[in-house]
Structures are given as structure tokens and as C-alpha cells.
Design a protein that fits this description.
Layout: E1 3-8, H1 17-31, E2 36-39, H2 49-57, E3 60-67, E4 73-80, E5 85-89, H3 91-94, H4 111-122, E6 127-131, H5 142-147, E7 151-153, E8 159-160, E9 172-174, E10 187-191, H6 203-207, H7 215-236, H8 248-259, E11 263-266, H9 267-275, H10 277-280, E12 286-290, E13 293-294, H11 303-314, E14 318-322, E15 324-325, H12 331-334, E16 339-342, H13 350-353, H14 357-377
Parallel strand pairs: 1-2, 1-12, 5-6, 6-10, 10-11, 12-14, 13-15, 14-16
Antiparallel strand pairs: 3-4, 4-5, 7-8, 7-9
Length: 381
């Protein structure tokens, strides 16, 4: 039986990775009836990550009551995969869609994310993956750490749960009563940005405005994160100020690394490890992947190259089907990509092509598979 792997990222704002998987699988089976098509939808750690992992490898979706971004009751969830890995998406408890138009990064909390993590640990997970994406918060992950037993004290020795506007009041951090299973369960912070914690390219400056922060609030949030980094350095000996990815999700990347012992990992590497991609490659004839636009940013460890690096080692060709192709991407061919094809068949601008993207993807896959089938029959492939 001929085997194909389909593992695309979403085309942001156009098609989800699940939709792309479905279209690609349908096209393959239409041209090659009876083929085995293994679909792995990729999520970037934000909303939809739990469902993507469950669709890829199966498992169980667990529900639990948590606090939402403003401390309100919320219905949270996480995935427990067959191998004992738990997947938490912080968007399920602290996501931007949960606050609607009431965006205020000084008041929102990640406490509910910590409650989800605690529920996963209590459920007996063997590894804990936390997707950092789509957050409405800027609390440096202190809320999540507090839910897991961390204690934050002000200069008077009074304990409190910091949010963005009170990070500057943190004077001491006590980690002695953290959830006991954090010592035995590996924690992975799944992140696709290398944003530092503070400064003009830091968490508050880059992501604060989309969370309701005006310039004055951005300055206050940045000062709070700077204070957190200073206290973390003094009390734990860990340096997070310049840690790549520390600024992810309003500083939660840095907080998880320093306070919860998490390992920062690129999202695609986390996905590939969790779904057992290396084993999937055994016997595969071809891998189809893709993302909204393949450009020089893709060379920094995004989905296409993450997939290509591993497939290249296994000797499996990789075809990238993308929404658009940027300049100067020739390096992808040296790193395992066999060919790159755009679905923008009539050279339309983004807004104009959105409505026809699904049909264009179908037609592009049809053309690719026709050519590939012909090449195989004539001995060219």
C-alpha cells in the first residue's frame, strides 16, 4: 500500500490545518485510491492545539472548571494522549477570545492555565506540553505558577497573585510548595516566537497593544516584567531577561522556564516528537506540508523546515504547498524540501484569494498528483 503523510500548518486567516489536511487527503485518494494517508494537523500552541493533537494521535479530552482571564468561572480542558502526554493550550483558560472587547493586559491572569496544568498532573500524565499562544495576559506566567503552589510576596511579606499591573510589587518568590509532580514530569513550553522578556522587542511592546495596552500601559507592563526578572534572578539564580522565547504569551515563556522548570521548544519540534513523526516516515512515499507564506521567516524553524529536516534524514521527499512564496527561499531546497508550489493560481492579492483558497488548494494538489503519477508511470519518479 502506498503511504503519504500530510502535515500542514494553517494558512492563517484562510484555512485551518484540519481543513487543509482534509483537502489534501481527498485529493490523494482521488488520484491514488486505496493509498494510506496519515494526517497530522499542526497547531502553533494557540487555540486548537488540543484538538489538533487529538486528531493526530487520538486520546481523551478532559474537562475541568478553572478561572478565566479575569478570574471568572470558565470551562477548561486538556488532552491526555495515549502515551501519557498531556497537552494544555493556554488559550483555553486565558485566551484573547475569552475577553471579547474587554481587553486589559494589566488585569488578566494565567491562573486558570496553572489549574489546567495541575489537573493534568493529578490525572497522572507522564509529560506535560503547554501551548503558549493566543493569550490575553501579561503576567509573566505568575498566575499559572501560583495555581501550582508558587508564593509571591510583596515588600511587606504579604502574599498575592500578581497580574500585569502588580508585577512591580513582587519582592520575593517562594517555590518550596510547588506541585510535587513537577519534579518528576517533564514540562515543555511549546512556542514559535523568540521574543525576549522586555524592551522594544519584548512581550509588552510587541504583544501588549493587541491585548488592550496603550503606550503608557506598555511601559508599565514592561517595567513589571523587568522587576520579575530581577527577583527571579536573585531568588532562583535563573536569568530570563534575554532568554529567547521568554516574552511569549505575555512573559509566560520566561515564567514557565524559571518558576516551573519548563523546557522551551519550537512548536513544530514538539508536534513532531509528540506524534512520533520519525516512526511515521517509515515506508512513506512522500510528505505534503505547507503554510500560509513560505519566506525567509520560514527559515527560522517553522513547520515546513521542521518537517523537511526530519524527512530528509529518512530519505522521504517533501512537497510544500503554500499560499504564497516570498523571495530568497532557495535555502529550503538544501534543507530537505523537494519542491514548493503556491496555490495562488491567478496571482490575486491576499484579500481577494481568501474566498477561493480551498478550491485553489484542491486544484493545485490535483495538478501535482497528476504530474507525479505520470512521472512514476514513465519511470521519471
Amino acid at each position: 500500500m502506498r503511504k503519504f503523510i500530510v502535515i500542514p500548518d494553517s494558512f492563517k486567516g484562510t484555512m485551518s490545518s484540519r481543513t487543509i489536511c482534509s483537502i489534501m487527503e481527498e485529493a490523494i485518494l482521488r488520484r491514488i485510491p486505496g493509498a494510506q494517508v496519515v494526517c497530522v494537523p499542526v497547531a502553533d500552541g494557540g487555540e486548537g492545539s488540543v484538538e489538533a493533537f487529538l486528531q493526530a494521535v487520538g486520546g481523551e479530552k478532559r474537562h475541568c472548571s478553572v478561572q478565566g482571564p479575569y478570574g471568572e468561572p470558565a470551562n477548561g480542558f486538556f488532552a491526555l494522549l495515549p502515551d501519557g502526554t498531556a497537552v494544555v493550550e493556554m488559550a483555553a483558560a486565558a485566551g484573547l477570545p475569552m475577553v471579547g472587547g474587554a481587553r486589559n493586559a494589566e488585569r488578566t491572569t494565567t491562573y486558570g492555565v496553572g489549574q489546567l496544568m495541575a489537573a493534568a498532573l493529578d490525572a497522572g500524565c507522564k509529560k506535560l506540553v503547554v501551548g503558549l499562544g493566543g493569550s490575553a495576559t501579561n503576567d509573566g506566567g505568575c498566575g499559572a505558577a501560583a495555581a501550582l503552589g508558587a508564593v509571591f510576596l510583596d515588600k511587606n511579606g504579604t502574599s498575592f497573585v500578581p497580574v500585569g499591573r502588580t508585577l512591580k510589587q513582587v519582592d520575593h518568590i517562594d517555590l518550596r510548595n510547588l506541585h510535587p509532580r513537577l519534579k518528576e514530569v517533564p514540562v515543555i513550553a511549546m512556542c514559535d516566537v523568540d521574543t525576549p522578556l522586555c524592551g522594544p522587542t519584548g512581550a509588552a511592546a510587541v504583544f501588549g497593544p493587541q491585548k488592550g495596552a496603550d503606550p503608557a500601559m506598555v511601559a508599565r507592563l514592561d517595567a513589571g516584567l523587568q522587576n520579575l526578572a530581577d527577583v527571579v534572578r536573585r531568588d532562583t539564580g535563573k536569568e530570563i531577561l534575554d532568554l529567547p522565547g521568554a516574552g511569549a504569551a505575555g512573559g509566560m515563556g520566561g515564567g514557565m522556564a524559571a518558576l516551573l522548570g519548563a523546557q522551551m521548544q519550537m512548536g513544530i519540534e514538539t508536534v513532531l516528537d509528540t506524534v512520533g513523526f520519525n516512526a511515521m516516515l517509515d515506508g512513506a512515499e512522500m510528505v505534503f506540508t505547507g503554510e500560509g507564506k513560505l519566506d525567509t521567516q520560514s527559515l527560522r524553524g517553522k513547520v515546513v523546515l521542521g518537517v523537511a529536516h526530519r524527512a530528509q534524514k529518512a530519505g522521504v521527499p517533501v512537497v510544500a504547498v503554500v499560499g504564497d512564496i516570498g523571495d530568497h527561499i532557495e535555502q529550503v531546497y538544501e534543507q530537505g524540501v523537494t519542491g514548493v508550489f503556491s496555490i495562488n493560481r491567478v496571482a490575486l492579492p491576499y484579500e481577494a484569494m481568501k474566498s477561493r483558497a480551498a478550491d485553489d488548494l484542491r486544484l493545485t494538489m490535483e495538478n501535482l498528483l497528476r504530474f507525479y503519477d505520470c512521472a512514476r508511470k514513465t519511470g521519471l519518479a
